[in-house]
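This section describes the prediction task in plain terms. A model, or a person checking by hand, is given the sequence of a single protein chain and must write out its three-dimensional structure as a string of tokens. No templates, partner chains or ligands are provided. The sample shown here is typical of the held-out split.
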Amino acid sequence: MPVYNLKHDTSMEKFIRIEEEAARCLLCQNAPCTQACSKGDPARSLRAIRFDNTPLAKRWIASCTEADLQAAEQACIHYDRPIRLRELASVLPEAPQTSDDKLPSLAIKFCEIDCENPFFLASSAVCTNYDMVARAFDMGWAGVFYKTICMDDIHEVSPRFDTVGEQKQGDFYGFRNMEQLSENPAEVDFDILRRLKQAYPTKVVVASIMGKTEEQWIELAKMAEAAGVDAVELNFSCPQMRLAGLGSDVGQNPELVTFYTAYVKRSVSIPVIPKMTPNITQINQPAMGAFFAGADAISAINTIKSVTMGECATVSGKKTVSGYSGRAVKPIALRFILDMAKNPIICGKREDADASAMSGNQNHHARISKTNHVELSGIGGIETWKDALEFIQLGCRNVQVCTAVMQYGYRIIDDLTLGLKHYMANRGIDHVSDLVGEELPRFVTPSDLDRDTVVFPKIDTKKCIGCGRCYVSCMDGGHQALRFDADTRLPQLIGKKCVGCHLCRLVCPTDAIGLSKRVTKRK
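The expected answer:
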């Protein structure tokens, strides 16, 4: 994350970093700081910083006086010390003057369905009833992949969640859950979806379903279509089903993915979207099965099978394997999206012969989709618009969010949409579709990477605070290419030993180590 500004606070004798200070904010409901501020919204400004919109943050406190911000600080209920709003306000960059109505539209088509933006709720606990989804739609979410509907009687455990990472401020980077599917009867859920589509005709409503047999998959899909939903997602990936042959057990079997997708595809006319599991070595195998069966799009990924050892999530003294999500899984999710996006069969042209390859009897295949390729819907660790952008740049036409909503609420849609709009405006891009897959050409195999040049780290002594973290890491985990002067407390690069691995830059807490120019390696 870039550092937009640093200020030396002579009273505290330490650096104030915008993102670091704002990260202390508890993101309160009906924030007392804003309640006490007569001319601005400090809580909204802090939330903008937290969700990668620092350049826009000053717009919500631009009219605040010193007295306003002081009153807001005094009202802060942080358990440690108030957020230093006055210092933050003095170093925040001036917000762009472009009015929101002049920013680019985020409209995009997904499976030929018009979407007002690419941000959807993922099938999960964040969308389990009418009121929840309606509230999300009212706040600006473009669509929902409703919590998976099945014909089983679902009984959940308690507790069912656990976390990995910092928890004292309600923040964590990893989230483990043992939740299964919707506990509502199927008829109740499809009635909810019917009412949602009637009340919000411009929003995209996708029914996620899971069957145990061919007949159940077909029946659920037909019920979804009858309810008037825009598309149906096939959950081949839930990692914590209590019965064998469900969820990720299906997603790990390319043949079952192919046939269940084909069963549904030939039974309904709405788009069919299989959801892939990450609990597999090669995602392309089941994904190609979905392709040959005529899938219109593929969702990926679901949660990753995992274990946490704490006692917080034990159920009557017992533990189990369950799904892992949150920002920690984003690089894994991106890898699976890249694998599919770079596959010329899955995301390339679809020929009639490709579908015929599934079987010798064409009567058993799904019809060919109107599109000539499979579209992608990205899931996994998305919190900010920058996270979403990464999925889009690898080929996704929409993204689904779950864990971030569970942490921070539906309100994050404001920063998701605003951040992406300003990014597009800054680049002069008018359509989200122009971003789809733009980073794919930059990905090559390891053997194709440049191994004849090097980029050396560059130390900025003005930013260096003399902690020596770079020296410790280089000595014990790198190439012993740094000296550390105990008197000046400044590191010094030993050029002959440095290989340009940049471990030092990654561990530096003040961004005092940057990049030099790329040069040819010495012989």
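For orientation: Residues 413-427 form the longest helix (15 residues).
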